[in-house]
Amino acid sequence: MVRLTRAETQERNRAKVLAAAREEFAERGFRDAKIDEIADRAELTRGAVYSNFPGKRALYFAVLADLAERAPVTAAAEPALTVREALGALARGWVTRLPLVTDDERAPSRLGMDLVPEILADEVTRRPYAQLMKLNAVLLGLALERLRPPREPDGRLVRLAEAALTVLQGAGQLSAAAPGFVEPFDVIRVCEQLADLDLGDRWSVAPMSPRVHEVDEPWSPPPAVDAITGDPARLARDGVVTMLGLHRLSAVEDALRAAPPDAEVTAIAVTASPGELLPLARLVVAELGTCLRETFPRPAWPRLRLVYDESGALAAAAGVTQPGDRTETAIRVESGRIVLRTEGLGACHTAAAR
Fold first, then answer.
1. How, if at all, do strands 211-218 and 337-343 pair?
2. I want to staple 135 with a disulfide (CB 3.0 to 4.6 A). Which of 121, 163, 239, 249 is the partner?
3. 285, 64 contact by CB (below 8 A)
4. Average pLDDT of span 248-276
5. How large is the average pLDDT for residues 250-262?
6. Would the pLDDT of 193 be above 60?
7. Any idea which of 59-68, 87-96, 172-181, 337-346 has the lowest mean pLDDT?
8. In a 3-state reduction of DSSP, which class is residue 224?
9. Comparing C-alpha atoms, which of 280, 296, 37 is closest to residue 145?
10. For residues 222 and 317, is the Cβ–Cβ distance under 8 A?
11. Residue 301 pLDDT greater than 80, yes or no
């Protein structure tokens, strides 16, 4: 028998816990699920469950994130070429994943019914969730802008994206709370009609003064995966790399707007509670990412790369030793060296603009 390494054993146990938790949550619902029952299903101890996940809520987020990231992606035969087509296709992809009124109360499609109540129950999850939704709006808005560049030099379509996500998220919550109330075709038509709205959306940068350091340091980041495309994130390329806590995610738009059109921009998501909050981040971004990959032609995908730094190794490579939820640090990389580091509010814009 081949002896597993410690890392392989940990990975196997984590997979067993996730599979057992999915069964437990599907059968009992989040509130009635028990850690002891999950451990029994996985044929592990209670301690083994807690060694992989800090609590039941963290495990719930991880189960939903795993399902969202593994969802099959079926690219459209003819990708959307207009904003109206994109919003309609996005809505169609979204509503097909909603639970149906005919689904059993404990069917897998209803696994996420307790997600929003759990997020709302605690400030620890509410603030990151708000920023994650802002990040999704930035990603969707940038993709829409590739299909229809704003007429004004400072114009943007992020607020239009926020309106579309408001409709889709509301439809999802009502489908769970009031089965049968939501008419999917109405949701699709509403999202299509949003394309004609002029929300007067303009881009402006608030005056901020981050700390700026010109440096000459090596940049040797560990391997990472882009959460948006699923491809390897080539972090060694020249460009701007931002370390953003989950309370500062929307600041990545500063870097994207200020950087030259051909510049690489990477956001590394960090948090003081990676075991619980990074699975939530994975879940929220994956829900939109799947629809983006199905709907938009590849050239319209946002040029942002997003990486989750669960271990803190990426932040450490950038010189951030104690990343937290309010972290905003950005570095400029040239020829494999860090040549500029900015810290504090406005760091993303300053690093990209310089």
1. antiparallel
2. 249
3. no
4. 95
5. 93
6. yes
7. 172-181
8. coil
9. 296
10. yes
11. yes
Of 124, 352, 133, which is closest to residue 258 (Cα–Cα)? 352
CA–CA separation, 304 vs 143, rounded Å? 11
Provide the token pair at 1: 């028998």
Q: What span, in angstroms and rounded, lies between the C-alpha atoms of 145 and 194?
A: 14
Residue 202: other Cβ atoms inside 10 A: 12
Q: Which domains does the chain have, with CATH numbers?
A: 6-52 (1.10.10.60), 83-196 (1.10.357), 211-353 (3.40.30.10)
Q: Would you say 136 and 283 are in contact if contact means Cβ atoms under 8 Å apart? A: no
> Token pair for residue 303?
């040029």
**Nearest-angstrom CA–CA distance, 33 and 27:** 8
Cβ–Cβ < 8 Å for 79, 144: no
Q: What local confidence, expressed as pLDDT, does residue 2 receive? A: 62
Q: Which tokens belong to 304?
A: 């942002």
Residue count of the chain, please give it: 354
Q: Are 187 and 91 in contact (CB under 8 A)?
A: yes
State the amino acid at position 161 in one-letter form.
Answer: A
CA 151 to chain centre: 29
